[in-house]
Amino acid sequence: MQTFRYALLASLLLAACGPVSLPGQGTAPAAAATNLSAGQKAAIGKKIWQNESGGTVDGLTAWNGGEEFPSLGIGHFIWYPAGFNGRFEESWPQFITFARQRGAQPPSVAMERHAPWPNKAAFQKEFRGARLSELRQWLAANVTLQTDFIIARSRAALPKVLAAAPASDRGRLQSNYNKVASTPNGMYALIDYVNFKGDGTQASETYNGKGWGLLQVLGSMKDVPAGQAAAAEFSASAKRMLNRRIDNSPPARGEAKWREGWLNRCGTYARPL
Q: What single DSSP character describes residue 208?
């Protein structure tokens, strides 16, 4: 098990980190990109699937209470119905583009521009119907593809975070990222959190001007050593940012009902993978 963890760490670091140029700082150190093994991808994908829906096939197509859109796949990628323009990044169309570029053939319903169900009632009425059943079957058969997409989003997040931050903060953000990435569970945390709550660079993903994504979590971390201490501090910072989000959220959304689950998920970041 220990050998697997060290191998996983090395592969994740190679896969998730790329060259990042900071104004006035040159290029940050980075390893050449490589692919994760099938077993390593499975470990990450299984963990994220468990986080989102308990690892169930039914959970691959969900419509959460209090939300205006379905959430699909192991990462619960958001898909907006026609006419709804939400504050959160719509990731399902991005995933389908990613999948098709890699030669996958999603079911026809998956390639529609907008989610074809106008509300949760319509979605639930069709839950055991042909379209959603076919979609769940395809998603269950393509977990590695979804994991690849989630890792790709994580790779793209750090340059966006650094570009969005004031120049005076970029060195600390990069340092915190590197500290967290020095453990297997820390690297998993960085991959999972971007999929979970975004990179924190979009103005629309704020309440009362306060964000909760990777940018805010890295920025609110206390100064701790690299390694397990950094993974634990990333976990604690993520909890602080999500508590702040809930406290600032519109009362009508009732986000407090998600607090326990969200904090439990962040707690996994502090434990060995």
A: T
